[in-house]
Amino acid sequence: MADAQAVTIARVHQRLTTQEAAELLVISRPTLVKLLESAKIAFERPGRHRRVKLVAVLA
């Protein structure tokens, strides 16, 4: 904060959409989906949509 850097506070167990996770990682959504399907990043599928835990993205 002293260096004028942005600070974000989020719940550790927060689940992100694939678009939100891709934006956080600064990659495209299709690239993220490839990483999810190759089991490089853990995800859940409650219903039809993938959800990625914030801790999995930050790991």
Give an overview in words.
The chain has 59 residues and is mainly alpha-helical. The chain has one domain. A two-stranded antiparallel ribbon has the order 1-2. The two termini are 22 Å apart.
One letter per element, helices H and strands E, the order comes to EHHEH
Tell how many strands the DSSP assignment holds.
2
Overall pLDDT, averaged?
91
Q: Strand content of the residues, in percent?
A: 5-15%
Q: Specify the structural class.
A: mainly alpha
User: What is the end-to-end distance?
Assistant: 22 Å
* Major sheet strand order: 1-2
Helix content: 25-40%
Number of alpha- plus pi-helical segments: 3
| Radius of gyration over all CA atoms, rounded | 13 Å
Shape: globular
The parts where pLDDT drops under 50 for at least 5 residues are: none
Q: How many discrete domains?
A: 1
Largest sheet: 2 strands, antiparallel
